[in-house]
Design a protein that fits this description.
Blueprint (H helix, E strand, L loop, with lengths): L13 E7 L6 H12 L3 H14 L1 E8 H17 L5 E6 L1
Antiparallel strand pairs: 1-2, 1-3
This protein binds L-tyrosinamide (TYC).
The site of L-tyrosinamide has 13 residues, from strand 1, helix 1 and helix 2.
GO molecular function, one term: peptidase activity
Pfam family, one: ClpS
Family: Belongs to the ClpS family.
Length: 93
């Protein structure tokens, strides 16, 4: 039997949570979403929103699978409730 002697630390798989640009969601709504669900300051949230607006996609945070999934669901539910087409997705790092 081969036993592992080298100590190994397990790292959890991490996921980026991304916002996607669209032509209809108001900038102010996106800033509010980033502040509310990703705990960013107004300044950071504005920077992220403008990055998405100009580049098509941008990162709001990096989380473990379950947390990332929760963020995506919260953002999508909130956007739908306000009838905005904002899209939020997660991507394995
Ligand atoms: N492009 C949108 C506008 O001009 C703003 C926007 C930014 C929408 C980021 C979505 O994830 C987004 N109103």
């Amino acid at each position: 039997m081969i036993t592992r002697t080298k100590p190994r630390t397990k790292r959890p798989n991490l996921y980026r949570v991304l916002l996607l640009n669209d032509d209809y969601t108001p900038m102010e709504f996106v800033v509010h979403v980033v502040e509310r669900f990703f705990n960013k300051s107004r300044e950071d949230a504005t920077r992220i929103m403008l990055h998405v607006h100009q580049n098509g996609v941008g990162e709001c945070g990096i989380f473990t699978y379950e947390v990332a999934e929760t963020k995506v669901t919260q953002v999508m539910d909130f956007a739908r409730k306000h009838q905005h087409p904002l899209q939020c997705v997660m991507e394995k790092k």
